[in-house]
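Work package 3, deliverable 3.1, input record:
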Amino acid sequence: MMSCKEATRLMSEEQDRNLSARERITLRFHTIMCIGCTNYRKHMAFLRRAAQRFRDGFPSSE
Amino acid sequence: MNDNADEVRATGIQWDDPSIAVIRRDMLRFAQMQLRDAGAAEDMVQEALIAAMNNASGFAGRATLKTWMFAILRNKIVDHIRKSSREVCFTDLSDGTDEGDARLDAMFNRTVMGTPGMWNLDDMPATWSDPDAALSQKQFWAVFDACVNHLPERVARVYMMREFLDLDTAEICTQLGISTNNCWVILHRARMGLRECLEDHWFKGEARA
């Protein structure tokens, strides 16, 4: 099984490049069994959404 | 007075409205964060405002005024970075590489069924309930801002170029003179740090509340 350390690296890289078929399968297999990494992946997607909101001008801090 | 009224009708934007001052202040904060140079940030915001005023007809009301003005500002910042990247010595910025790598390694000290490198139970990412609700809360953005600024300078720089200026990793590598792999490692470290910071300073508190 892939380690969490390796899985988190791939979950970051999938934001920047297309993963290979092999990487996708091993990552999928890992996240099915690992709640920590399942959460991590959701958090990565959330970070992307937050960054998009931020770059469009986050809500004013008044 | 007539001219002014015509202008308002033509563009629908009242440049002396207090809401513009608020947008301007947020633009300045955004530019300062990207450039870490108060003078250059001020210049970029000024240029963006002038461009916005000259091209007010380009604001079709599809986006909010703030989103439209931020898009103009981002373009100005990207142009500035492209022009000045040769002058900035990226390798001079503090990166905390060794410290960062050690911290990252230390989170994965558990061995499960013979596989090392698994999350320590204390460091394992928690379940966040309804994280998107945070996006409309002003206090969340103060925490987000602080967490980005808390990253080592080099790490924050690469992260912001990727996520806030929407540059691809190939261009970031070229601009900063680093390898693609190095770029991915830095982005990984940025996201890992940001995630942990948001969990510690926002989502954990939320869960308790």
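Chain A has a mean pLDDT of 93.
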